[in-house]
Hints:
- The complex is a heterodimer of chains A (279) and B (195).
- Helices cover 33% and strands 11% of the residues of chain A.
- Chain A has 279 residues and is of the alpha+beta class.
- In chain A, the strands form four sheets. Chain A has a two-stranded antiparallel sheet with strand order 1-4. Chain A has a two-stranded antiparallel ribbon with strand order 2-3.
- In chain A, a hairpin with a 2-residue loop joins strand 6 and strand 7.
- The radius of gyration of chain A is 27 Å and the shape is elongated.
- The C terminus of chain A is likely disordered.
Amino acid sequence: MNTANIISAVCVVGGTGLLFGLLLAFAAHIFAVKKDERAERITEVLPGANCGSCGYAGCSAYAEAVVNEGAPVNACTVGKSPVAQKIAEIMGVEAGEVQEVVARVMCAGDKASVVYKFDYKGIKDCAAAAKFAGGAKKCESGCLGLGHCANVCPFGAIKIKNGVAVVDDTLCQACGKCIKECPKHIIKLVPKNQRHWVLCSNPEMGKFVNQYCKKGCIGCKLCEKECHFDAIHVVDNHAIIDYDKCKNCGLCAKKCPRGVIMSVPRENGAKTQVVTTAN
Amino acid sequence: MAVQIVSILLSALLTENFVMVKFLGICPFLGVSKKTETAFGMGMAVTFVMALASAFTWLANKFLLIPFGLDYLQTILFILIIAGLVQFVEMFIKKSLPSLYNALGIYLPLITTNCAVLGVTLLNVQNYADSFIFSLLNGTFSALGFTLAIVLMAGIREYLDEDAVPECFRGFPIALLTAGLMSIAFMGFSGFSIG
């Protein structure tokens, strides 16, 4: 190989590289997309979980929506008030209150208290089990207990305990993924400071519920009579608490003959302990 | 001419399928084949880049490398061209078609390192050094063959996700077995020829 060959090789490859480099530099200038700095800064303060609970595709999509479409600054349920404050500072607006909510499974029918129709041995997934004769539990609105919600939870906040899904409210960020995925639709959002909720969503009459679940609401309305604030009502044969009126007094939970109203003890500086059963 | 085009089309899609027969571009084939939608997006991005790369590398080979007698530099020069091209395409799409840019996402820059793209350009200058049209068509059709393979794979993997696969086979093992069986099926096309 002689010198001319080497020089021509260097020239061709180097020249092409230089040409492409210049072209790209030039193109970068022409095709530069102007980005709003605020969107990037908002993306940085967001938790980055990309859970989608704000209603947008991910954290950066939400940040862009805040800047470009005037989306509310307090829509992030994971970051809650601190994040809303920071976004509000970046955008130069007032941050509203973020009511902290947490997901709750409206079922207490653990293995010991429900009647099973059959022994389910199919795919270990709630969606599959729900399609197969509505699941193994005789109760049509009972937790299937196969942990589909636990699998989709990006924060690892749901555990299956004795055949029923239980949400750990210290980990739950209220992203709503489990609510969308649950084939029985028995997961609901409850205000986080709310220490009482009803562990049943069965719409059937009490005499039927009695036949297949020891822990199901029978719609006896004792809680309704006991409540001083008109905050609990039996609708569709099961009790529903109106969280705007409830004062967390716990009288309903004490009165309930089935122990179906969940009552978390008042916090004494320690973390809230969620009891698995309602007794 | 027409017969030759059909021959190129069939060989690129079936008998010489890049993924299934030549085993090029395996990385995106396994990495991006979990959902049919993204697999198709990846296929389209690869098609776009492969067609452009075929055209540019053919020109570079014909008017730059051969006149200077530098054929041995094909690999490195083609890598350079493909990388530059992908960067340029990414910028262009980001500016003019933001929705397509969002849909392709990370796959677009990943194509730079897709060996199928380099493979097709090198095979083009080997087999179709005289004809610009044929290299361009071969590049496009090979990419369509890649799309076919990756979309089929994604479809099968979507079904597999819902099937009761034995625990030890779940995920990648069953995907690799599937890929092998699909490859055997595609090998069945070998021997066909037109014209």
